[in-house]
Write a structure and sequence with these properties.
308 residues; globular
Length: 308
């Protein structure tokens, strides 16, 4: 009985952590919109965001992770994932969100689980059953409805940015599987964020897009972007996943687009049209179905963190 109560408390704690993670990830659209209003371009906002987050992650890792050094091969692998997939995904998401409504940007993220299932079938040989194919059909229908935007047509470049972010993040999840089999996510995360930070500073050096002449009020969305979705939400996701299991965690994390839409409506004043709402419902349902399919037939991929 005591063990059962302990297990129940652990599950409750895990679910609570995952709800915090979903809220943190969902806040991205609002924080990006506020950063844009302060005159922050993508390169500047993300270079500063990941620099702050990198410092905080190393402090956390030094406090809770033993051993912290996984060896050159694993450290380089995690950093490469950050530089080649995680960082470009965040850049595409920022660009996409800058050109479409917050609600559309939030709902588009629900495509990721479906894309992950397809990539896992292609590259890892995982089974895709009836629910998986049904989720794919729902995702296609939902994407078409979402692409209509609030007024009948969404910005094509914005949709391209969001689509690129979804593909890059899905690739990141699939390709991180070997890293997670070798080292724990808490060990890998500081190296992933370090690789992402290096990518951004190289990017701004080559592009000349670093601009610190933005409104000083822009510092607070940068700091919150670093601490809320990039540190707190990721840490909460990892803790929650460890408590209730990766696949169940992915199902709970399907709340992320719902949270994002709610926050966009409350803080940005977004009012999605009915077709956009139907598209979002279809895409979120597709995400839930594919996670249920993975729960029934195979072990879920355990991403190194989450979010854009």
């Amino acid at each position: 009985m005591g063990e059962e109560r302990t297990g129940h408390r652990v599950s409750q704690m895990g679910i609570a952590c995952l709800i915090v993670a979903a809220m943190g990830y969902g806040s991205l659209v609002v924080l990006i919109k506020w950063a844009l209003r302060a005159g922050l371009n993508a390169e500047t906002a993300l270079a500063l965001r990941f620099t702050i987050a990198c410092l905080v992650w190393w402090v956390i890792a030094a406090a809770v992770v033993r051993p912290l050094w996984p060896g050159w091969r694993h450290a380089a692998g995690a950093a490469t994932l950050g530089a080649l997939f995680y960082a470009p995904n965040a850049l595409c998401y920022y660009y996409g969100t800058s050109r479409v409504s917050g609600t559309l940007a939030a709902m588009a993220i629900a495509l990721v689980p479906v894309l992950v299932a397809l990539l896992a079938r292609l590259f890892l040989g995982e089974r895709l059953g009836l629910l998986g194919w049904l989720s794919l059909a729902l995702a296609v229908v939902g994407t078409v409805l979402l692409a209509g935007g609030e007024n009948g047509v969404a910005d094509p470049l914005g949709l391209l940015g969001l689509g690129g972010a979804a593909v890059l993040y899905s690739l990141y999840i699939v390709l991180s599987a070997p890293v997670i089999r070798a080292i724990s996510p808490l060990v890998a995360m500081p190296y992933v964020i370090s690789g992402s930070t290096l990518f951004y500073w190289l990017w701004v050096a080559l592009s000349g897009r670093l601009d610190i002449g933005f409104d000083p009020v822009g510092w607070w969305p940068i700091v919150v972007l670093a601490l809320l979705p990039t540190v707190l939400a990721m840490f909460a996701f990892l803790v929650g996943s460890r408590a209730i299991g990766a696949t169940r965690a992915a199902i709970v994390n399907s709340l992320e687009p719902v949270c994002g839409v709610m926050l966009a409506v409350i803080f940005l004043g977004d009012r999605p049209g009915w077709l956009q709402i139907l598209g979002g419902v279809a895409v979120i349902a597709a995400a839930l179905l594919v996670q249920v399919e993975r729960l029934r037939h195979t072990r879920a991929l355990f991403p190194v963190g989450a979010g854009r």
